[in-house]
Design a protein that fits this description.
134 residues; Immunoglobulin-like; five-stranded mixed beta sheet
Length: 134
Amino acid sequence: MALSPSVTETEGAAGSTYWTITYRNVGSRTCFVSGYPGVAFVDGHGRQLGATAARTGGPPKLVTLRPGGKATITLREVHAGLQVGCDSAKTYRPAAGLRITAPRGGFPRYLSAKGTNACLNPSVQQLTVGPITG
């Protein structure tokens, strides 16, 4: 699979930001994807900060991606400083990026998350992700 992710939209809500992440098939063959990607904040060295995103939403459906085709996921980030366990300056820090692993694995990809704070406590669920959709 030759999937390339990018952040194509962000939208703020009360205490949260919703990220639309678009996967594009940059390969020369049609591929089929289904499921949830693995998503987590990372520091500048690629080390994970806090908990991996929890899954939310309905059951995943099979998405067909022809070469150049696109599919999306929605990621919700609760702003650091609002949740118990992540509510003081010592419990969060700036994230350098997001590490995203496609459904069913593969090599992780990294997207910038500059300006975003990541909770350091792995028991605080700061991120939730929905299934990939066509």
